[in-house]
Amino acid sequence: MADTLDFGFHPNPDPMPADERAERLKDPGFGTLFTDHMAMVRYTEGKGWHDAEISARRALSLDPAAAVLHYAQEIFEGMKAYKQADGAIALFRPEENARRFQRSAERMAMPELPEQIFLDSITRLTEVERDWIPPQEGGALYLRPFMFASEAFLGVRPAKEYLYLVIACSVGSYFKADAPAVTIWASQNYSRAAPGGTGAAKCGGNYAASLPAQAEAIEAGCDQVVFLDAAEKRWVEELGGMNLFFVFDNGEVVTPPLTGTILPGITRASLIQLLRDEGLTVREEPYAFEDWRKDSESGRLLETMACGTAAVVTAVGTVKSADGDFTIGTGGPGQITRKMRDRLVNIQRGEAPDPHGWVKHIG
């Protein structure tokens, strides 16, 4: 079975007019302004990956018995293409997305997409859609690779046919530009993942299960929800879509460990390296919710950072729960949060040296 494929290109016969696109790029929002094209590859058991193409973004036709609709075999990734200071376009650590996509596929009993096909699909689509990158600060092309079981059958077994696609949308800031820090709700009624489950896979079911807790957060006036471990409801795990870091007054930083219930974030891994580059000690170890409260109230904990592809790095200012609220530091971004965000963003956008070779230029 082929590890590489040639992508055919079929231009959209009715693309968005350039003047309309330019107007909409002034305020693209997040996740609603989609580009003209998409990438698609098919998989058939016994034949492997085939029929790779870049073509017009369009609606899909699915049989009502498609396995994804009944047994939720589906995975996805999230990543961004950035315009560099010199006008070139670049991706940030795309090979890590490709490898995580493979790990997610393995967990969900799906065929693993070869790394080079993944990289070629996002590279080709970005080249075609480069004019969709918003010009303003914080603008990027958000890429959504995803795969689902398309075989029509009713029976509990791994499917034999799959579709892999990449769609793209123009995006600005994930959170409101005037929000210096986010407020989060500590969920005590819901769990995101349990040991032995799918917490380390980037699959839609994990996010669907988190939505009632996110609804609680919104009702409580919060931006995001933080989940505790399923077994003891004691240990901090992650937000609905971001990893967490805790910065202490002794120069140490703690982040919850990857034990199978937390998504191994690429931004998380990058922050661990950048913090260590700064000479800070980073420990991957459990951190109790009650310690989070006590350390915030005593002043021992200076900052809490949330990180992910969409939001990059943002400060957590206030934590709310049914047992009362607490504020971290001044309630706004601290020195380390601001520094790490600037360092990461500047590397991604080619405005600072890239000592670890994370940025991949594509023209």
TrEMBL record:
Stored PANTHER family: BRANCHED-CHAIN-AMINO-ACID AMINOTRANSFERASE, SUBGROUP IIII AMINOTRANSFERASE
Similarity comment: Belongs to the class-IV pyridoxal-phosphate-dependent aminotransferase family.
One BP term from GO: branched-chain amino acid biosynthetic process
Pathway: Amino-acid biosynthesis; L-valine biosynthesis; L-valine from pyruvate: step 4/4; Amino-acid biosynthesis; L-leucine biosynthesis; L-leucine from 3-methyl-2-oxobutanoate: step 4/4; Amino-acid biosynthesis; L-isoleucine biosynthesis; L-isoleucine from 2-oxobutanoate: step 4/4
Reported cofactor(s): pyridoxal 5'-phosphate
Keyword Amino-acid biosynthesis recorded: yes
Database matches in Gene3D superfamilies: 3.30.470.10, D-amino Acid Aminotransferase, subunit A, domain 2
Protein name according to UniProt: Branched-chain-amino-acid aminotransferase
Modified residues (N6-(pyridoxal phosphate)lysine): 202
Family annotation (Pfam families): Aminotran_4
Superkingdom of the source species: Bacteria
InterPro entries assigned to the protein according to its UniProt record, in alphabetical order: Aminotrans_IV, Aminotrans_IV_CS, Aminotransferase-like, B_amino_transII, BCAT-like_C, BCAT-like_N, BCAT_family
Enzyme Commission code(s) on record: 2.6.1.42
Source organism of the structure: Alterisphingorhabdus coralli
Keywords associated with the record: Amino-acid biosynthesis, Aminotransferase, Branched-chain amino acid biosynthesis, Pyridoxal phosphate, Transferase
Metal-binding found in the keyword field: no
GO molecular function: branched-chain-amino-acid transaminase activity
Catalysis: reaction(s): L-leucine + 2-oxoglutarate = 4-methyl-2-oxopentanoate + L-glutamate; L-valine + 2-oxoglutarate = 3-methyl-2-oxobutanoate + L-glutamate; L-isoleucine + 2-oxoglutarate = (S)-3-methyl-2-oxopentanoate + L-glutamate
